[in-house]
Amino acid sequence: MARTTHPRLTMAKVKFEVTVALGEQCPQLDWRTRYDLVDYLQRASAILHTRYENACSYAWASTEQYERQTASREACILATLREHGLADCAEFQTDPRGWPLVLRLNGREYRLGGKLS
Known about the structure:
With 117 residues, the protein is mainly α. The protein has one domain. 56% of the residues lie in helices and 11% in strands. It contains 3 helices and 3 strands, in the order αααβββ. Strands 1-2-3 form a 3-stranded antiparallel β-sheet. The chain is elongated, with a radius of gyration of 15 Å. It starts with 6 loop residues before the first helix and ends in a 5-residue tail after the last strand. 19% of the residues are buried.
């Protein structure tokens, strides 16, 4: 199978894989709920990725207020995961060179929120 390099196709593939893995981890969730959850996690994690980049690159992003807002966004993601019983499967990685949200589902790691290039 050829490797896909188009960012949208690649992200769609990642979303699909995570949605399927969520189905195995949480069979009580229907397909649409799982897809919506993954879509939310991807979008929220992409915002975190930008915030982590800013925090490393700009002095204005090193303020206490900016850090509180970033922590608040992380808390919102964790609250959403907690609603579905998945809070213990998530880990935030604040290094802007990587992917900000790592989900561990069924023994595999899925990374969300980074920029595909």
